[in-house]
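User: Here's a structure from my thesis project, written as C-alpha cells. My advisor, Dr. K., wants to see whether a designed sequence matches the one we expressed. Can you design one independently, without my sequence as a hint?
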C-alpha cells in the first residue's frame, strides 16, 4: 500500500503523458494559426506590445559589447507573447521580444527570449510555462566583439508588479507603471532593466517583425541553433509580406 495514495510507479508516466499533451496542444495551436491566415504570425501569434526604456547599468567587467558595457538609457519596443496561441491561462511557450532602437550607429537590435530550461543542455529547448512571471532565455548564444560567448536572459524584477497568467494581466501591470524586467547573462549577472511604457495599438503590434539577425557585429547570435532557426524567422516574415534583414 502506498501512503496518501501516491503511486510512485504511475506518477512519472502520468507526468510524461501530461507533458506530451501540453506540447501537442502548443504545436496544434500553431498549426491552426498558420492555416487560418497568410498575414498572421506563424511564430508567437498572440502578443501585446509596449513602448519602454532599457537602462544599462554598466560598471562591471567589460564583455566587448557596446550595448551592455556602456551605461545608458535606450528607447525600446517590448512585446510579450504566447508561442502557440493557446487559450488564456493555458501553458504555452511564452516569449519576450525586445527591440533596442539605435544603440550603435542608429541600427536597431532585436533580442528574442522564450521560456526554456535552465541547465546547460535544456536552455536550448523551449519549454511551456503557465505564468509570465518566469525566466526567459535567448536559446542561442551571442558572440561579443572580444570573442566571448554568452547567453542572455530576462526575468521579472522581484520588486515590480506580477505579470500574471494572461496577456491582459500583463497589460494591467504595465498600465499601473509596475512592470519591469531584469536583463541578465547565463551566470545571473544583471546588466540592466527594462521598464514597460505605453501599450501599442493592435495594428502596430501586427506590423512588428522581430528577427535575431537584427544585431550589431559585437553582439551577434551564433551557433548551430541560430543557423537552423534563422530561416524560420525569414519565412515567417515573408509569409506576412515583410522584408527580413539580409544575412
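Assistant: Designed independently from the structure alone:
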Amino acid at each position: 500500500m502506498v501512503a496518501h495514495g501516491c503511486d510512485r510507479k504511475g506518477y512519472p508516466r502520468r507526468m510524461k503523458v501530461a507533458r506530451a499533451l501540453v506540447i501537442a496542444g502548443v504545436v496544434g495551436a500553431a498549426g491552426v494559426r498558420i492555416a487560418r491566415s497568410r498575414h498572421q504570425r506563424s511564430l508567437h501569434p498572440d502578443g501585446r506590445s509596449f513602448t519602454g526604456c532599457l537602462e544599462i547599468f554598466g560598471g562591471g567587467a567589460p564583455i566587448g559589447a557596446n550595448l551592455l558595457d556602456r551605461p545608458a538609457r535606450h528607447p525600446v519596443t517590448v512585446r510579450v507573447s504566447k508561442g502557440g496561441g493557446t487559450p488564456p491561462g493555458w501553458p504555452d511557450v511564452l516569449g519576450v521580444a525586445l527591440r533596442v532602437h539605435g544603440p550603435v550607429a542608429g541600427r536597431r537590435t532585436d533580442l528574442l527570449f522564450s521560456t526554456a530550461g535552465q541547465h546547460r543542455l535544456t536552455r536550448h529547448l523551449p519549454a511551456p510555462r503557465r505564468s509570465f512571471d518566469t525566466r526567459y532565455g535567448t536559446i542561442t548564444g551571442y558572440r561579443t566583439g572580444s570573442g566571448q560567448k554568452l547567453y542572455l536572459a530576462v526575468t521579472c524584477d522581484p520588486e515590480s508588479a506580477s505579470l500574471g497568467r494572461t496577456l491582459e494581466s500583463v497589460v494591467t501591470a504595465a498600465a499601473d507603471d509596475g512592470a519591469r524586467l531584469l536583463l541578465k547573462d547565463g551566470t545571473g549577472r544583471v546588466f540592466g532593466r527594462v521598464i514597460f511604457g505605453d501599450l501599442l495599438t493592435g495594428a502596430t503590434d501586427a506590423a512588428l517583425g522581430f528577427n535575431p539577425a537584427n544585431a550589431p557585429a559585437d553582439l551577434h547570435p551564433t551557433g548551430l541553433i541560430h543557423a537552423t532557426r534563422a530561416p524560420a524567422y525569414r519565412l515567417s516574415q515573408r509569409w506576412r509580406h515583410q522584408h527580413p534583414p539580409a544575412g
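When you compare it with your expressed construct, this may help: The chain has one domain: 8-239.
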